[in-house]
């Protein structure tokens, strides 16, 4: 179905302008990944531990766990504010200017962090400010991707963001590995250099933003119709009077005109919890179940988890952590390119959750009971499999579905609210794990994550809809059904002849109006 639908699209639609724009926005998921990848190893570097007192003998085990989790999770606190800030500017100044603003904020935060010399106060401030920029990416980038992408590659374009999270994780973890090998334990550059990679990334993509095209849907929304038509024509690589472009414009304007009165913030917010309550419920549950399934904790505290399954030296932990980041990145690429549109959102999600659940159960049993070296090697492999499951499942959908199931009038505010909730959950999860390991025991935390993953499996089957391959505007048809029918509703697939007839009809209407 997927490849046949692609062939039915005009060949000009998949062009270099589309790919440049979606890559520039999509690869900014790496902002979050670079932080997660670097901080996971940074808190293990002897130079960082010494500078910020992570092994202070005057502090209790609980106090040290709290200090470590505060440093690690400070970016997530900033991300909550960043998601809200992203909404406030995204509809006000546009997608591209919002993108540049978030890069500047992120850059300032990173510079403040790496210039911290005494105490944790400046480090906290820098990581919080960096988090504001990182949080903005979760609103600005997926929204842009789903707005400019043709329906049949929307999953691929939007999943560049979620996939690039693990590109950033991989780069950050390999940077940590490199400084562990080549820089002495008493040199603060051991943690400063990996963190500084974020500065280079921000600079490269700030330049890249000047080669992107503004979202036509946003331009139509604010009434700049001529500019919007020109932008859509350029990004589709088709003339403005081409039937495909005319048809898409007609769909967008129909929805924009129907929603004119819903553009004010408080009206849009009210709509989220009345008209769109079931969509909000789906997205909120994705965030809760995804974050508390434990996969994010495994990423942020990866060296600690490898230590639990018998990997003793810091260098070996860093090597396995770098490999773990690579596996998640490759898995996310495979999912984005081959699965999320072809297999669909729903089947991708519950396949990924099943893999994650299976792996977590094995690791839980091993940590609880111990075993042979072969069993320990199996536990290491299962941590990798849990990462593959996460990349295929919750990670592939947690940014995409937020941006594609809401109509244009409330898309930014919905995405902002959900991503603020996402980062609040991520903060709670990363903040809670060290104390959880102290109070519940290592296997107790893993058992908790396994139970949440099982609930996620039920949720994926009974509640998650399938919007793959359909225009953003046509998804309204899905949610006009009673809530209990939505998860298993199948769109009637249009034949090639029906699509051509629709395009010809729109073209005729366009000529008659002219």
From TrEMBL:
Cellular localisation: Membrane
Protein name in UniProt: Major facilitator superfamily (MFS) profile domain-containing protein
Gene3D superfamilies: MFS general substrate transporter like domains
UniProt organism field: Trichomonascus ciferrii
Superkingdom of origin: Eukaryota
Presence of keyword Membrane: yes
Major facilitator superfamily (MFS) profile domain: residues covered: 21-468
SUPFAM superfamilies assigned: MFS general substrate transporter
Family membership noted in the UniProt record: Belongs to the major facilitator superfamily. Sugar transporter (TC 2.A.1.1) family.
Gene Ontology CC: one annotated term: membrane
MF terms in GO: carbohydrate:proton symporter activity
């Amino acid at each position: 179905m997927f490849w046949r639908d692609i062939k039915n699209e005009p060949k000009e639609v998949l062009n270099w302008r589309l790919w440049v724009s979606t890559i520039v926005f999509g690869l900014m998921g790496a902002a979050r990944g670079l932080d997660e990848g670097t901080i996971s190893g940074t808190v293990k570097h002897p130079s960082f531990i010494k500078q910020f007192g992570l092994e202070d003998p005057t502090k209790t085990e609980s106090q040290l766990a709290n200090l470590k989790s505060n440093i690690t999770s400070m970016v997530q606190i900033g991300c909550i504010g960043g998601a809200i800030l992203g909404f406030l500017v995204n509809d006000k100044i546009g997608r591209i200017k919002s993108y540049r603003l978030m890069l500047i904020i992120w850059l300032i935060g990173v510079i403040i962090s790496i210039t911290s010399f005494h105490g944790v106060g400046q480090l906290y401030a820098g990581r919080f400010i960096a988090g504001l920029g990182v949080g903005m990416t979760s609103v600005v980038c997926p929204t842009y991707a789903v707005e400019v992408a043709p329906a049949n590659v929307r999953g691929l374009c939007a999943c560049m963001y979620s996939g690039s999270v693990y590109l950033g994780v991989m780069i950050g973890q390999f940077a940590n590995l490199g400084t562990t090998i080549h820089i002495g334990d008493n040199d603060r550059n051991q943690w400063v250099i990996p963190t500084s990679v974020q500065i280079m990334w921000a600079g490269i993509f700030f330049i890249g933003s000047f080669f992107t095209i503004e979202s036509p849907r946003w331009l139509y929304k604010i009434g700049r119709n001529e500019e919007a038509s020109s932008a859509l024509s350029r990004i589709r690589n088709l003339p403005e009077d081409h039937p495909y472009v005319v048809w898409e414009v007609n769909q967008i304007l129909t929805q924009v005109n129907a929603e004119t009165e819903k553009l004010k913030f408080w009206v849009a917010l009210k709509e989220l919890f009345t008209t769109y309550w079931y969509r909000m419920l789906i997205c909120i549950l994705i965030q809760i179940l995804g974050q508390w399934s434990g996969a994010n904790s495994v990423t942020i505290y990866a060296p600690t988890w490898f230590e639990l399954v018998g990997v003793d030296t810091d260098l070996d932990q860093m090597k396995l952590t770098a490999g773990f980041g690579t596996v998640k990145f490759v898995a996310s690429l495979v999912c984005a390119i081959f699965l999320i549109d072809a297999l669909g959102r729903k089947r991708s999600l519950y396949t990924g959750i099943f893999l994650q659940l299976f792996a977590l159960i094995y690791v839980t049993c091993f940590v609880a009971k111990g075993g042979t070296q072969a069993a320990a090697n199996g536990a290491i492999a299962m941590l990798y499999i849990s990462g593959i499951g996460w990349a295929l499942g919750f990670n592939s959908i947690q940014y995409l579905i937020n941006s594609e199931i809401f109509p244009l009038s409330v898309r930014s505010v919905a995405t902002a609210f959900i991503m603020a909730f996402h980062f609040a959950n991520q903060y709670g999860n990363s903040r809670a794990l060290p104390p959880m390991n102290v109070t519940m025991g290592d296997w107790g935390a893993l058992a908790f994550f396994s139970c949440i993953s099982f609930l996620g499996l039920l949720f994926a089957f009974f509640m998650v809809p399938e919007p793959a391959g359909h225009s953003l505007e046509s998804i309204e048809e899905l949610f006009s059904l009673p809530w209990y029918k939505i998860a298993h509703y199948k769109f009637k697939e249009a034949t090639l002849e029906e699509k051509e007839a629709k395009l010809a009809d729109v073209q005729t209407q366009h000529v008659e109006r002219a």
